[in-house]
Design brief:
Layout lengths: L1 H24 L3 H27 L6 H17 L5 H23 L4 H21 L9 E2 L13 H21 L2 H11 L1 H6 L4 H27 L1 E2 L6 H14 L5 H16 L7 H15 L3 H14 L8 H5 L1
Antiparallel strand pairs: 1-2
């Protein structure tokens, strides 16, 4: 077990070290900004990974929860002149309450109907963000204060976002070996069987749903305070679908899946800028190919390659052939 775990631990340590040193290796504010956006997406996608990876429920409303926290932060700080930290905490709590209320509705369904219902919530939220006067309509809300004074080092927000990202990853890792995590996995494997051994289905599914919403809330606060501006565009159905794709492409129910998926989500469009008007087409084709050729995600491919290497490069022998 130690030999198997060692390469993963070394790789993780190297990645963390590289990310920590990056602001000192590169003074480019553009690339540091891309890293911050990646941290923000990882936080939100780890939340979805708790819901989808453990219980199997594919929510398409992370974009709405992302936007809700961003707008609550923006409105409290600009219209009501709240302290930005107080507004940030309040926004995350609002997300938790909103998610618990929505759970009363969405968990009356499951499967495709659950996904469709959460998508409808996202579409409603998108219309509200665009048409309500308090949200600034399509023009958005400018002049949102940053979490830190302008006199502080420019790397402060970078390291704070990284710290929150690591905290959310830590929560996910804790859940994997906790009683709560085992209950959620039982629901994902077989709801009826889980209920028969005493797992309260609605209670545990609601906990996962609320955690996903609050993780999206943290991302929304960071986004609003980093960009100092919010508008409806980043918080619609496209954001919800991008979050779902990132988790699925990276590897559902794994620690690294949302991380790899978020990296692709942020950087792939940047790499495809040379295609200009064909960018979305190429992006869509690549996503389809990844999902078709890698059904277990990028993490699943890496695990298969590692097992292949440990087997000395030999292909696994089918059970029937082995008997012969």
């Amino acid at each position: 077990m130690r030999r198997l775990a060692r390469p993963g631990a070394v790789l993780t340590a190297l990645v963390v070290l590289l990310v920590l040193l990056f602001p000192w290796l590169s003074q480019s504010s553009y690339y540091q900004g891309l890293f911050i956006l990646t941290f923000i997406w990882i936080i939100m996608n780890q939340g979805l990974n708790i819901l989808l990876g453990f219980t199997g429920y594919a929510s398409i409303q992370q974009g709405a929860m992302f936007g809700l926290a961003a707008y609550v932060t923006a409105i409290c700080t600009t219209a009501y002149h709240w302290n930005v930290w107080l507004a940030a905490v309040f926004a995350v709590l609002v997300n938790g309450v909103a998610a618990s209320l929505m759970a009363l509705i969405v968990f009356r369904t499951d499967g495709a109907y659950f996904a469709i219902l959460t998508l409808c919530v996202t579409l409603i939220a998108e219309e509200l963000f665009t048409n309500l006067g308090i949200t600034g309509g399509s023009e958005g809300i400018p002049n949102i204060p940053s979490l830190f004074p302008a006199t502080w080092p420019s790397q402060t927000f970078y390291y704070f976002s990284f710290l929150l990202m690591m905290a959310t990853i830590g929560v996910y890792c804790w859940l994997r070996t906790s009683r709560l995590g085992y209950a959620l996995r039982g629901i994902g494997a077989n709801e009826r069987l889980a209920a028969s051994v005493g797992v309260h289905l609605y209670k545990y599914k609601t906990i996962a749903f609320v955690l996903a919403g609050m993780f999206a809330g943290v991302s929304g606060v960071l986004y609003a305070c980093y960009e100092n501006f919010v508008s409806p565009l980043p918080f619609g159905a496209s954001a919800s679908m991008s979050s779902l794709l990132a988790v699925v492409i990276g590897g559902t129910g794994t620690v690294w899946g949302p991380i790899l998926g978020s990296v692709l989500l942020v950087y792939l469009p940047q790499w495809l800028q040379s295609f200009q008007q064909y960018q979305l087409t190429v992006y869509g084709i690549l996503v389809i190919l990844i999902i078709h050729l890698m059904p277990r995600g990028l993490v699943g491919v890496g695990q298969s390659l590692w097992r292949f290497r440990k087997a000395g490069g030999a292909l696994p022998v089918p059970a029937e052939s082995a008997k012969d």
